[in-house]
Amino acid sequence: MKNFDFQCKTRLIFGENSVKELKNMISGNYKNILLHYGGGSIKKYGLYNQVIQILGKENVNVFELSGVEPNPKLSLVKEGIKISRENNIDLILAVGGGSVIDSAKAIGIGAKYEEDVWDFFTGKAEPKESLPVGVILTIPATGSETSTGSVITNEDGLYKRSLRSNEMRPVFAIMDPKLTLTLPDKQTFAGIMDMLSHIFERYFTNTPNVDFIDHMSEGAMKSIIKNAYALKKDPQNYNARSEIMLAGTIAHNGVLGIGREEDWASHKIGHEIGALYGETHGVTLAIVFPAWMKYVYKVDIDRFIRFATKVFDVSAEGKNKNEIVLEGIGKFEDFLHRIGLPTSFIEGNLPTDKFELMADKATEEGPIGSFKKLFKEDVANIYKLAL
Amino acid sequence: MKNFDFQCKTRLIFGENSVKELKNMISGNYKNILLHYGGGSIKKYGLYNQVIQILGKENVNVFELSGVEPNPKLSLVKEGIKISRENNIDLILAVGGGSVIDSAKAIGIGAKYEEDVWDFFTGKAEPKESLPVGVILTIPATGSETSTGSVITNEDGLYKRSLRSNEMRPVFAIMDPKLTLTLPDKQTFAGIMDMLSHIFERYFTNTPNVDFIDHMSEGAMKSIIKNAYALKKDPQNYNARSEIMLAGTIAHNGVLGIGREEDWASHKIGHEIGALYGETHGVTLAIVFPAWMKYVYKVDIDRFIRFATKVFDVSAEGKNKNEIVLEGIGKFEDFLHRIGLPTSFIEGNLPTDKFELMADKATEEGPIGSFKKLFKEDVANIYKLAL
């Protein structure tokens, strides 16, 4: 186990009708609130009205910035920073999924920084403080509601870059599983792939002696898979929605990464697909991960055997190591297919002619990943494996 | 799953030589520090000198209060409150195990309360604020380093009472597994029983649909058992010490209890043994838990089957439900014996003539527990089962 320094300050308010707790989170604490959201879905299902009603009863000024899209854009972040500065915003209230929260986080650190917020995403500067960000979560997936991360796309060159900072953890996250009952299948299951990937990026490590967190991660993965099948059978299953919503948070609050080197190559490899074709993040991960696993497993075949046997219940009997691992990856692909996700570019109806360009962009700041360090050629090979 | 509101603010600084990070925790943040510890062990192994040296280089005033014993006493807490008030203490630095931390927490809330601190433990008042408590942990067991809990014994009547409050979570916890290499076996393994019990008290619940946390709890229990055996074989195994130290924290930071009714009857039943005979907390739990399990399992036999099969790998084949459960409890008792813990009063060399008195005290505020509500007669029966 590696030494670590961990703190997750976010307060979780979880359960049916928990949106009404917004009142207690706000009351007496904030004065000028920037309400940040995406498109019409929060209006369509009444959440927008409910939030406005709660805020209306508090002595606060509400400013609005909507229009966050999947793969949230730097230009909107800059608009949010401008509004925040001009109106002394003291809370950014993100109502939505990961894109909205990531956008709110970037606004939060940008508003407290005099230079260009993109500096943080290129590594030119480190966030020292942020405006508080509060969350009402509508899509369980990215874990952004408690995580340190934000992923923003700079339209000028289609760069999708991620940033991590403890300063960006939201102060509270309100999570009502009922809000997720209306999610379209694609978002539900892409979200599930996203949360699984957050565990994968930590679970596949070369750091030895991380048994306790390994065990907890395996339990988490098994439960996510079990509840994903329950939702495939019945998207209205409130209990499965609850488990999945909680899982998305725990998968990415950082606990499952303590004491170990994390990887994150697959996220970068997937981000280039998202940046180029606007594909949903979780879908890009479903395409990338099986290929990544096949490409890297020999680095530590025993870890992949553990994954195959403990998470996908592969029996080791009468099989050699490669067979066990490949059966595990096969079962993972089967799981993805059964929940309706593609595991290749072709299944995902995506162009297959830009692999070199994407590999170039993914590695332009140097090789990526840590389980196996990947250079441009490696990344291109992984795209080809995912053809 | 039940609705929940969860926040754990404690910053974990974990790993070899992490004590030197104390400097960064203190520097510029605090002025008058109350150093709180137990007896000689932190002096014997050099930790005391190291702490004094670090504090000596900071611009702080250090006050000392030592003498915390197992089952920490209200009288010492009151002395700490007096010192804190007289010297404008702004950080209580607890260096030790659960007793020292619990005592520090009680001082922290007591110093901010004008009436008798015991009011909090009898439910007459609720803590509204606390002096910050920092921790350097030397014994992995109670999880008090991040938990909301404190257990204090009022010598006037030998009442041992516990309190939970978010206000009592420490601000930081420094955890160096190397500090635990010198622990005597009894403390090591009683500590391991203690952390297992913190999972049990949450895992055995009647709240339905808590699959995700169940899975994570089962992983946690399996890893604790595995690493307990590793430490029985070689107490100098640094990696197993690390896993166990981390496990003790996660077992009781509250995450494994979110969304469910918790039980805590066994703790109360064990507390009376501790209050009367001064026995180590973890040892009392080793005596109580197998008996409690046998007494209550029929309330939800399927949950105990899950426990037996997933945590102790009991094969269900060809057995009826009772047999599966009892084999699981048997394996748990076998585990306790193998790590040197008693599972009965007689094995523990404890008197067996005060069961009625203890049952009376354990239930004097009403029936205890939630998995099965236990009245005085039930508690007496459990003591008899543990004879």
TrEMBL record, chains A, B:
Organism: Paratissierella segnis
Tree of life domain: Bacteria
Protein name: Iron-containing alcohol dehydrogenase
PANTHER family reported in the protein's UniProt record: ALCOHOL DEHYDROGENASE YQHD (PTHR43633:SF1)
InterPro entries assigned: ADH_Fe/GldA (IPR001670), ADH_Fe_C (IPR056798), BDH-like (IPR044731)
Keywords of the record: Oxidoreductase
Entry's Gene Ontology cellular component terms: cytosol
Alcohol dehydrogenase iron-type/glycerol dehydrogenase GldA domain span: 10-177
Chain ranges of the Fe-containing alcohol dehydrogenase-like C-terminal domain: 190-386
Residues in coiled coil: none
One term of GO molecular function: methylglyoxal reductase (NADPH) (acetol producing) activity
